Structures are given as structure tokens and as C-alpha cells.
Amino acid sequence: MKPSATSYDVLVAGGGNAALCAAITAARAGARVIVVEKADKDARGGNTRHTRNMRVAHDEGNGILTGPYHSEEYLDDLKRVTKGNSDWELAELAIEKSKELWDFLEAQGVRFQPSLGGTLSLGRTNAFFLGGGRSMLNALYRAAEDLGVEVLYETEVVDVEIADGFFTGATLSDAQGRFPLSARAFVAAAGGFEANIEWLKEAWGPAAENFLIRGTPNNTGTLLRLLMDKGVEITGDPQQCHAVAIDGRAPKFDGGIVTRLDCVPFGVVLNADGERFYDEGEDFWPKRYAIWGRLVAAQPDQIGHVLIDSKAINLFMPSVFPPARADTLEELAETVGLDPAATRRTVDAFNAACVPGSFDHTVHDDCRTEGLTPPKSHWARPIDTPPFYAYSLRPGITFTYLSVRVNAEGRILMADGRPSANMFAAGEIMAGNVLGEGYLAGIGMMIGSVFGRIAGKGAASYVRN
Prior knowledge:
This protein is α+β, with helices and mostly antiparallel strands. The protein has 2 domains: about 5-235 and about 400-465, FAD/NAD(P)-binding domain (3-Layer(bba) Sandwich); about 245-395, Succinate dehydrogenase/fumarate reductase flavoprotein, catalytic domain (Flavocytochrome C3, Chain A, domain 1), CATH 3.90.700. It has 12 helices and 21 strands. The protein has helices spanning about 15-30, 70-80, 90-95, 100-105, 130-145, 195-205, 220-230, 285-290, 290-295, 330-335, 340-355, 445-465; strands spanning about 5-15, 35, 55, 110-115, 125-130, 150, 155-165, 165-175, 175-190, 210-215, 235, 240-245, 270, 305-310, 325, 355, 370, 390-400, 405, 410-415, 420-425. This is FAD-dependent tricarballylate dehydrogenase TcuA.
């Protein structure tokens, strides 16, 4: 399908949460907007399709959010997981602006529900979408289309024309070939490069062949690479990404959130050599689950195995795939490809190091190990009650943090530091400005919505002026 015109006020590249928030905001300000989505209509929305919630600051509970989550606490949480690696002006702006998102999204038809049981204990901090990410996306698309936003599916921006930091036009490609499109302002919201295995290998080496991509196969970084080649300033480490430990049986692409494993705090994780390699109980899972993809990626063959016993099997939301099950540790080890003797040695050493305490997975309890390296700081209980269970883990890449640099107006910065007059960015393609490393559950969606609104407002303002 070709566009209905050859020129628009605002061209938005991408079709997920960030892109739609930008398009809606620009359209509400009177701009004529076109959205270019690489996927077909059924698969539209990029990684937003797989989301469930968004982390938002708020000063009081509201009947669904169970209590306050002040900006100061949010910022402290972000500082902890990023180890200070962030543009704090943009981080503070995003967190403060996140207070507006509940009302904004509700106004577009998005509805919320209480947090689901077993989903990382996020009832106070995160707003869960009724019907999940796809339902949220559908509401945003309806709102955009009601405002007259035009959407081109199965179409991609394959070139951009930039003169002295000024966007002058783009080349689009669909099944029939390439064609030009002009617009007075441009919003880049087309995701990262996580589905481009060759690009991942540039950063990670051959290990990247064993990575699984949790989200869309369409995020190949075409637009990011174009902007890099056109002289846009880049920020972030190409190795940094949102990478979680997912079920090793997940598909190469598009497995989604159901492949994530939340059982790590309740057991022990062994590498292919049958050895533990990190503290499974370091902190609450929402603040640590996103480091485990990188941890597993650093292990032999990029694989891990989490072992739990019958005491823990009902404490977490299960994966879409059932665990391996056996009545003895040795039999379980053989089932998942571990050496039985090495597995027994590791588990026996762990069990002997466990200090008796009052187990409570909702707090930093006193169940820990002593004299063990690495330690387990909380929720440490002997793995001794059959039947025993195991999940095999692989690195699951959600999105990459290599990004175009933006300022507080969402304007893309050129390599000389000057902000573009009419180019903006939102979502994964700029999230590395806030996320230098680490992750908080639901913050990616927050960054997309906040900077989508900022970009849409800036683009419309430029057009008006």
C-alpha cells in the first residue's frame, strides 16, 4: 500500500509504543502524520507486543497500583541497576514525566489491571495493561487512526536525507520497490539491532550465534545504522542490552515474555561444567533478572541450568515449557546434559553452606550461605526435597542499548553536538541515553512512552513554527 500523499508534516519510523505515542501527540497538535511499520498488520508493534506492564512514578496508590512509588525511589532504583551509567538529566526527566503516563494512556483507550500473581512482585511500581501489550497497542492504533494518522505496513525507511543536521526526506521500501517521501519533521522510533545476528557478533564474537532474540525479528538496526552513517552522535556500548535468562527451548525469534524464567532466586544456577557462577539471591528479581542474560552469555557454550526442588516449584510463574523432572539429582543432571558427579558436588557444597533462617521470598530474608563462593545472599535453602526440577537457560536478548544521542527535547544530536532542528528519537533507538547498563522491569516501555510524547510534541511544534 502506497501513501495517500507525497508529503507529510511528520514521518514516524517504527510501529511500537514509542512510535504511536509520538504519532498521537503530533496528530493531537494538528500535524499530518504518517507511521511506517516494517511488520505486517498482524505482527505490528515490535517488542511492545510482548510486554505486560510499564514502570511509572506515582505519589499514591489508586486501587490498582498498591502504593506510592515516588520519583526519588525510582531514581535510586535506576542508579543501582545502571551503576551510575546514565544521562541523569534525561533519566530524571523521564521519571518525572512518567507520572503523566497513566492518564495519557487511559485517554487513548488503554486499560489497566492489578498485577498478575507470580510476576516479579510489581504491584506497587508497575502499571499492568489489561490484555497485555497487544491490547495496549491496539488501543494506541485505534486512537492514532481516529486522529487521521496514516499507517503503512510492510514498509521500511531505507534511507534518510540529512543536510547540515536538517532532515529533508526519506526513501521507503515495500514489496513493490523503493519510493521517496518528504516530511517536515522526522521521528526515529524503529528499535535497536538485536535481531541482526551479524551485528551482535561484531560486539560479542561467535558467542552471539547462541543468543535467542525474545522479540521481533524486524529490529535489525537498519535505521540506527543509517543515522550513524549520516553523522548522528551515538551513545552506548554495543555489548550492553536488555538480556535475560530464558528457557533454552525458546525459538530463535519472537518467543516473548512467556519464555522468561523467574525461578532463579529459588534455586542454584550451574554452567555447563556443573559449577555455580553468581549469587542467585543477590536482590529482588525485578532488580536483577535483566543481568542474567549477560551472565549466561559469559559461560561456556552460553548455557546455564537452574536446579530447584519441590519446595520451590510453586513459588514462581512457570515458563511456557515444563521443567525437566527427576527423583534424584544425578538423574536430573543426565536429563539436562550435566555431569552427575559434578552436579552432586556443587549441590552438596551449596546445601552444607546454607544457614537456617526464616524463608520469605517477599523480603530480603536471612536464608543465606556462609563460606561459599559465590555466596547466595537471600532465599538460600538446601536443594534436598525430591522430586527435583531443572530448566536450561540461554541468553534472551530483548533490545540493545547502542543509541542515537538525544537532548531533553528528544532532538537527535549530530556528531558535532548540535541538536537537529527537525529530527527526534524515541524508544529503543535512544533508550541507551538512560540505560547505560542494567534494567528495571517496565522501564523500557516508560522511556518509549515519555520520549514518544516529547518527540511528537517537538515535531509538531517545529511544523507549526
